[in-house]
Specification:
The chain is mostly helical and 100 residues long. The chain has one domain (3-94). The chain is built from five helices and no strands. The chain is globular, with a radius of gyration of 14 Å.
């Protein structure tokens, strides 16, 4: 992901935190609880023969802010695996896993 896209996302997350501080605090609490309840290396939905291991929790309002402000190419970067990994490392409060 380009540095320009990273900076843009950082500003958008900052805006989200400023506009919705109560929601942000609640999301941090929910994410922490989900992270603490994980078993078997992050297996959160063991209903089949595969393991689903989501990396993070995006609050709907944050997702809407990001989606409204990134262009199509930036969204591709953001939603690709390297972009998702960068996001959870940079904004650990949204991370559902201890180690990325």
């Amino acid at each position: 992901m380009t540095d320009k896209t990273k900076e843009k996302i950082e500003k958008l997350v900052k805006t989200y935190k400023e506009l919705m501080p109560n929601e942000y605090d609640e999301v941090k609490k929910i994410v922490r609880e989900k992270r603490d309840k994980q078993v078997f290396g992050g297996d959160m939905t063991k209903t089949t023969d595969y393991i689903e291991r989501p990396l993070c929790e995006y609050p709907a309002n944050l997702w809407d802010i990001i989606n409204a402000n990134l262009d199509a190419d930036e969204m591709v970067e953001f939603t690709a695996k390297p972009g998702a990994r960068w996001f959870v490392k940079r904004f650990n409060e949204f991370s559902l896993v201890e180690k990325v």
